[in-house]
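re the bet — no i am not wrong, look at it urself. input seq straight from the record:
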Amino acid sequence: MCTNSLGQPIGPIVTNWTEPSHPTALELDGQYCKLEKLNPHCHAQDLFNANSESKEGEIWTYLPYGPFAKFESYQRWVEEMAAKTDPLFYAVIDKKTQKALGVASYLRITPVAGSIEVGHINFSPALQKTIIASEAMYLMMRYIFVELGYRRYEWKCNALNEGSKEAAKRLGFSYEGTFRQAGIVKGRNRDTAWFSILDTEWPVMEQAFSRWLAPDNFTGDGNQITSLSDIRNKIKQEQAA
């Protein structure tokens, strides 16, 4: 434990770290997908079509906007979001079809603290629980940790959104707590669950994603052989041995 001259406990000095820049990448490229900076002309129609497969509008329940009944209203929303730098939105593109199937963004971008959040995640039914969905999250993590040098990557969601909480845990985020009455969304109270990954945890995460995404970890029909969580736990055990 570090202490000052008064004997009070203080945090360790942060060394070998430089304040990162704001994310600016126009594209993040992977094996199965690529992320392109959101563009209303290139992506709005594909996204609207993909989102329309959510017949009951369940993908919009925990988001502060939507559902959008008409393409024109969705296109206006895409135009508004695409013009922002925080949140900075990306469209998730399936490399096989070249269709945009979902969006995700960086937000609460705080370079001085080395902290950045991933959010506004809205994956259409065709994207949910797929290799592409996981790889998209990996590409966003890799960019901020490896290329930009952030220290902290956050995930926050409605505390009632069990799907989002499970996704965060599966991807390797650690639960930090719940902020009660953190906001009001669509007229209803929102308690917010907080999760994070730190730069010191990233090397294990990167190894786990690399092994999980390897072609030999999937059967011919695309089913995983070993789960991401199991691979991550195995790597931790190997390092502890």
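see?? The radius of gyration is 19 Å. told u. also The mean pLDDT is 96. so pay up
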